[in-house]
Design brief:
The longest helix has 18 residues, at 145-162. The protein has nine helices and eight strands. It is an alpha/beta fold. It has helices at residues 15-31, 49-58, 75-91, 107-121, 145-162, 179-187, 205-220, 236-251, 291-299; strands at residues 3-9, 36-41, 63-68, 96-99, 133-139, 166-171, 193-198, 225-228. It has a domain at 107-228: Rossmann fold, CATH 3.40.50. Strands 2-1-3-4 form a four-stranded parallel β-sheet, sandwiched between helices. The radius of gyration is 20 Å and the shape is elongated.
């Protein structure tokens, strides 16, 4: 096959997250039988991005389409992945490499999100109208304000489109408010039901952190019905969206929205980052393995040192005066 598709993942310490990513990749393969599909990760898990690219090259791919397996364009899509792809392209001038765009906000993903939220509602203890429910949409959280703002847009579209009484946003880390402070604020609005929806593709440290925070709040406030909606995972509309990204990378010139990119425009509060070079930031954790793999190596007497690198890194982000605590 002349064309290969490289599905580029963030990577995680969590073995379950990697299994889910590979399951999505299998769904993409089923939708694209005419091309080779490989996976690779920026950090922790293997194969690495470069390993995945080398695998496609070894299978005879002369054109490789690199598709970010990520929802929004923050530093991974704007810096880390382009650095990986461009470095491989420079070392392999005979290959054609094209870089696709992130999944972003689009009708298919909104449809998948709505169905995941509806799944949670069906588990409610009592019949309540959506106007009596508050929706809390939780994003990953980054140091890119443009990426963070997408969570507010998504929440608004789900709020109005599904008919909820109100919607709030929160983040798993780096950006604010965090989940528990956001839920505390939401409790004061008086809705009898709150649905917590992590807008994530896969499980992992951060999604489990979100559900744990919601459980702590629910245990203290039994008068409120607090429901956890599933994340997107391998919903058929997610797989369709990946296939769309591949098609547009073949047929056109996919471009992310750079109007408010802090690396291209003087976005207020981030002026010093305009024009920053594209560079990878995952050298120290690239391919070191998930927690399960490393535990196995530890048991064999290897890999005694520990690299703690939170899946929600960028923890060196701006201090924030409001809602910084999880208490």
């Amino acid at each position: 096959m002349d064309t290969g598709v490289m599905v580029c993942g963030h990577g995680s310490r969590d073995d379950e997250a990697i299994r889910e990513f590979e399951r999505v990749a299998a769904g993409i393969r089923a939708r694209l039988p005419a091309v080779e599909v490989a996976t690779g990760y920026l950090e922790f898990a293997r194969p690495t991005i470069r390993d995945g690219l080398e695998a496609l090259k070894g299978r005879g791919a002369r054109r490789i389409l690199a598709i970010p397996g990520m929802l929004f364009a923050a530093s991974h899509v704007k810096n880390d992945l382009p650095w990986e792809i461009n470095s491989f392209a420079a070392a392999n001038p005979s290959l054609e490499l094209r870089f696709g765009r992130e999944l972003a906000i689009e009708p298919k993903l909104l449809g998948a999100a709505a169905e995941r939220i509806a799944e949670a509602e069906r588990l409610g203890r009592r019949a309540l109208a959506r106007r009596d429910t508050l929706l809390l949409v939780v994003g990953r959280g980054t140091r890119d304000p443009d990426a963070n703002s997408n969570i507010a847009k998504l929440a608004r579209m789900l709020w109005e489109g599904m008919g909820f009484g109100w919607a709030e946003t929160a983040f798993s880390g780096v950006a604010y408010p965090l989940v528990e402070p956001a839920l505390k604020r939401a409790l004061g609005l008086g809705f009898p039901r709150i649905v917590v929806f992590p807008y994530f593709l896969f499980t992992g440290v951060l999604v489990k952190r979100i559900y744990a925070a919601a459980a702590r709040v629910a245990a203290r406030h039994g008068e409120i019905e607090l429901l956890n909606a599933p994340y997107l995972n391998d919903h058929p509309l997610v797989l369709d969206c990946f296939a769309d990204r591949v098609a547009e990378t073949v047929d056109g010139e996919p471009k992310m929205n750079c109007t408010l990119c802090k690396y291209r425009a003087q976005v207020i509060g981030y002026e010093a980052e305009r024009g920053a070079p594209q560079a990878a930031h995952h050298h120290h954790v690239r391919g070191i393995g998930t927690d399960g793999e490393r535990a196995h190596r530890h048991g064999n007497g290897h890999d005694r040192h520990d690299h703690r690198h939170d899946d929600g890194h960028d923890q060196h982000g701006h201090d924030h005066p409001h809602g910084a605590g999880e208490g």
